[in-house]
Amino acid sequence: MAPLIYRAFEELLANPRVLTIGNFDGVHRGHQHLLGWVHQRSTKHGARSLVVTFDPLPAEVLRPGSAPLRLCTIDQRIALIGACQIDDVLVLRFDDQLANQTPESFLERLRACAAPVEIVVGHDFRFGRERSGSVEMLRHWCQLLGFGLTVVPRLDLPSGAVSSTRIRALLADGAVEAAAELLGRPYVLVGDVVAGQQRGQLLGYPTANLRLIDRLALPADGIYAVLVSVDGSLHLQPGMLYIGTRPVFGQEARAIEVHLLDVRQDLYDRRLTVLLVRRLRDDRWFPSIDALIEQMQADERSTRDVLAHLPGDWPPPLARVMLSAVEGAVSTDG
């Protein structure tokens, strides 16, 4: 069941809650681990579970010139949180006023509106103006007011720690399979199809040119085997994704193009959700158009082979949850 969504403290109904607070960008396996604790503790208390999150993300307001790109859209974030059996999601608009709230003031608003019986946070949780609120301060506050506090240790996998920063680094290297291990699902791009230069049509590989939404992080340039949903459909179509600067044609602007293998349809003004399966190769220059076409034919064979060997239950359930969240996102230039 989808969570109830609130946009202000004052909208919350006065129900006892177990809650957590955070950005939850990407809702990766570390986040899922923490949200599992929220669900478990709320069940124990017979209370509703609540996630307090922010849009825009704090870094996008506090340091807009250097804020990291997102790992999912806000609608996907909400859907993924709900898939972790969370009852309520409070999406607070992060602005200068909220950024300047002291930890004490923020907690007081939380106490007055969310009726917490317990708060669940990660071991490195920080909050309030200039991140001055700490776990130790929160523990003192909870003890003072008689609330429970659960501090969840960091989740480490055999491959290392799970973090949004590490996932972005893997994507920047094109390591989408390693990123998927940390996310618990394939990495997903969402974009609107816009007019292109139709070079793919001339090459025998017509492509849909994507304008990404919600400042999504791009993986490294190259060719990827993908599955594609059109307008949130659960029917996934095999395809190839190209990210790069088209060095054969001497272009400098980065392009994001999708070729559907077995379908010819008008995709203009449609919204595509692209599930990245595997990176096949990097983007590179070819000495001639014929050499490029020959390589594209090899890429198609590789793509078909990769997709043919996916497990029968692929993609995982969390990826399908994201497909249902495609309609509400606000389109912006990627």
Please summarize what this structure is:
This protein is α/β, with parallel strands linked by helices and 334 residues long. It is built from eleven helices and 14 strands.
User: What is the helical fraction, as a range of percent?
Assistant: 25-40%
Structural class category:
alpha/beta
Distance between the termini: 31 Å
Radius of gyration: 22 Å
Low-confidence stretches at least 5 residues in length (pLDDT < 50)? 328-334
Backbone shape: elongated
The string of secondary-structure elements, in order, is: EEHEHHEHHEHEEEHHEHEEEEEHH
Query: DSSP helix count?
Result: 11
Overall strand count: 14
Mean pLDDT: 93
Biggest sheet features: 6 strands, parallel
User: How is the largest sheet built, in terms of strand order?
Assistant: 1-4-3-2-5-6
Task: Tell me the strand percentage band.
Answer: 15-25%
